[in-house]
From TrEMBL:
Domain of life: Bacteria
Signal sequence interval, chain numbering: 1-23
Key words, A-Z: Hydrolase, Signal
Family from the record: Belongs to the glycosyl hydrolase 20 family.
Annotated source species: Larkinella insperata
Entry's EC annotation: 3.2.1.52
InterPro entries registered for this protein in UniProt: Beta_hexosaminidase_sua/sub, GH, Glyco_hydro_20_cat
Protein name: beta-N-acetylhexosaminidase
Glycoside hydrolase family 20 catalytic domain segment(s): 84-332
Any Pfam family hit: Glyco_hydro_20
Length: 371
C-alpha cells in the first residue's frame, strides 16, 4: 500500500498540472504578457468597455489589462477620496467577470508617490490630506505652464509622513479586493518632487534610497496577501548618462534605486518617441520587464520585434526577464473608444493610441504565426 502512495501523488499532481500546461499557447513563448493599459471607464461606459474586452482584446489574445482607477471607485474605506462620479462595486464586478471569462488578468492601478496633481488641479489625496504633501510651499497655479520657477510638474506625497501609508494602503487593499487582483500597479512614474530640501522629513536624504524605500514599503505590503507590485520604469533609468532626459528617465538621481528594490517588482518600461532598448538593462539587473508603446505604430512594431529578439538571444538566466508588451493609452476608456471607433477626428499623422494598438497586436500575432 505504501508503494502506491508516490504513484498516487504523481497522478494527482499531473491531474492538476496538465491543464495548466495545455493552457500555454504559442503566444506565451514569445510574449508572456500581452497587455493593454488604460484609464478605467466612467460608470456610463462600463458596458461598452466590457464589449471592447470581449470583441477586441480577447480575439487579439490580450492576457493582461491594467486599469488606471485612481479615485474612480466608490471607496468604502475612504469615501472622502472618491471622485464625484465613480464606479460602483457592481460596475467593477462586470469588468472582473468579463476578464475572467476571457482569461485576461485584471490589474488595478492607483498612482502612488508622484502624480498627485495635474496642471492646475490637486488630486484627491493631497486635496483632502494636504499634510501629506512633499512640497506644501509650492502653490498650484491658476494657469499651469512648463517650465516654471518651482519645477512643478506633478505633486508628490511625502513617503516618510507617518500617516500616509495607512490611508494609501486602505485604498490599495480595497481596490485589489474588489478587482479580485493578484497584482497591483502603483504608477510611480515622473517623480520630480522627492527628498525636497524644504521637507522636514526628507530633506538631505538620498533620493535613490527614498524612492527604493517607498517601492519596498508598497511591495512588502502587497506581499502579505501574495500580490505582486508593478511600476513604471522611468525613475530607474539614468537620464543624463543615457541621454533619455527628465521625462523617460531620472535627472534627480533616483536611478540608483534599481540596485536597491526587490527583484520581484515588475517593470513597465515606456518609451514613446524612440524605441530605446532599455529592457536589456532591466533584465540584466534581474528584473522582469515589459515594453510599453503608446501612439507611434512604427515604434511599437520595432519594440515588439526587439522583444522577440531579446528572448531568442538571451541567456537562460535572462530570457524569463523579457516579459512581453503592453499597449498604453493615456486617456479614459470612453475617450479611447470614441477614437477607436472613429467617433472623433483622427490625428492626420496616424500617430494615435488606437492605431498603435492595432499595429502592435498585428505584429505580435505575425511573430507568433511565423514561429
Amino acid at each position: 500500500m505504501k508503494s502506491l502512495i508516490p504513484k498516487l501523488c504523481l497522478l494527482i499532481g499531473l491531474f492538476f498540472v496538465c491543464p495548466l500546461l495545455s493552457a500555454q499557447t504559442p503566444a506565451d513563448s514569445l510574449f508572456p504578457v500581452r497587455g493593454f493599459c488604460i484609464g478605467s471607464p466612467r460608470p456610463d461606459r462600463v458596458d461598452e468597455f466590457v464589449t471592447f474586452i470581449e470583441k477586441e482584446l480577447a480575439p487579439r489574445q490580450v492576457n493582461t489589462l491594467i486599469l488606471r482607477v485612481d479615485f474612480n471607485y466608490e471607496f468604502k474605506s475612504h469615501p472622502e477620496l472618491r471622485d464625484s462620479v465613480a464606479l460602483s462595486k457592481r460596475d467593477v464586478r462586470k469588468l472582473v467577470r468579463a476578464c475572467q471569462a476571457n482569461r485576461v488578468r485584471l490589474i488595478p492601478q492607483i498612482n502612488l508617490l508622484g502624480h498627485q496633481s495635474w496642471a492646475s488641479q490637486t488630486h484627491n489625496l493631497l486635496r483632502v490630506y494636504p499634510q501629506f504633501d512633499e512640497t506644501p510651499h509650492v502653490k498650484m497655479p491658476e494657469k499651469y505652464q512648463w517650465p516654471n520657477a518651482d519645477g512643478l510638474y506633478c505633486k508628490s506625497y511625502c513617503p516618510l509622513h507617518p500617516e500616509v501609508h495607512k490611508v494609501v494602503f486602505d485604498l490599495v487593499d480595497e481596490i485589489c479586493d474588489v478587482f479580485e487582483a493578484d497584482a497591483f500597479h502603483a504608477g510611480m512614474d515622473e517623480v520630480f518632487y522627492i527628498g525636497h530640501d524644504k521637507c522636514p522629513r526628507c530633506s538631505g536624504r538620498d533620493k535613490a534610497e527614498l524612492f527604493a524605500g517607498e517601492v519596498k514599503t508598497i511591495r512588502d505590503h502587497l506581499a502579505q496577501k501574495n500580490r505582486t507590485l508593478w511600476i513604471w520604469g522611468d525613475r530607474l533609468l539614468d537620464g543624463k548618462t543615457t541621454g533619455l532626459g527628465m521625462w523617460e528617465a531620472s535627472m534627480n538621481n533616483t536611478h540608483r534605486a534599481i540596485d536597491l528594490i526587490p527583484k520581484d517588482v515588475l517593470i513597465c518600461d515606456w518609451h514613446y518617441e524612440r524605441p530605446d532598448q532599455t529592457p536589456v538593462y532591466f533584465a540584466m539587473k534581474g528584473l522582469k520587464v515589459m515594453t510599453c508603446p503608446w501612439r507611434m505604430p512604427k515604434n511599437a512594431v520595432l519594440q515588439a520585434q526587439d522583444m522577440v529578439k531579446f528572448r531568442a538571444t538571451a541567456t537562460n538566466a535572462m530570457k524569463g526577464n523579457f516579459y512581453g508588451m503592453i499597449q498604453t493609452v493615456w486617456s479614459d476608456a470612453g475617450s479611447f473608444l470614441d477614437e477607436y471607433y472613429d467617433r472623433t477626428k483622427a490625428d492626420d499623422t496616424g500617430n494615435t493610441a488606437s492605431n498603435c494598438f492595432r499595429a502592435l497586436y498585428e505584429e505580435m500575432n505575425r511573430q507568433v504565426s511565423t514561429k
